[in-house]
Write a structure and sequence with these properties.
Blueprint: E1 10-14, H1 18-29, E2 35-38, E3 41-45, E4 56-61, E5 74-77, H2 83-89, E6 95-104, E7 108-114, E8 120-125
Parallel strand pairs: 1-4, 5-8
Antiparallel strand pairs: 2-3, 3-4, 6-7, 7-8
């Protein structure tokens, strides 16, 4: 049986107002989000190094994408310390729902925020 390296391959975060969501994620990650227009809508790509076999994610606006806090729980990479990103959430128009919380010494920390589209998104970091 093939050994799976990452339990997630790709994540699409539904958005209603693409420009507002693009601004939100660009501000919390402190970068200019690249975007593509697809046949089914618009897609903006979250930070990822294509040279590294990591997990990619995008915000997506289209008829089949409906934001909800009841959907799948997504944990975005919070980098070395998720607090850096979490500190930008409210200024970017989001709301911190669960502040940085220790899980265990081995696993690290998590936090939860609501983005500008109503999605509940979690962050994870070792520190």
């Amino acid at each position: 049986m093939e050994k799976i390296i990452n339990s997630v391959n790709w994540v699409e975060i539904p958005v209603l107002n693409f420009d507002r969501a693009r601004e939100f994620y660009s501000r919390i990650y402190d970068y200019e989000m690249p975007e593509n227009t697809m046949p089914s809508g618009r897609m903006g790509f979250l930070p990822m190094d294509p040279k590294v076999q990591g997990i990619g994610a995008a915000i997506v606006q289209g008829p089949d994408y409906i934001p909800s806090h009841l959907g799948a729980k997504i944990y975005l990479n919070g980098g070395n310390d998720l607090q850096t990103i979490l500190n930008r959430v409210e200024a970017a128009g989001g709301e911190v729902l669960v502040h940085k919380t220790k899980i265990t010494d081995e696993i690290g920390y998590f936090a939860v925020f609501e983005d500008t589209e109503g999605n509940q998104i979690s962050l994870h970091s070792k520190n």
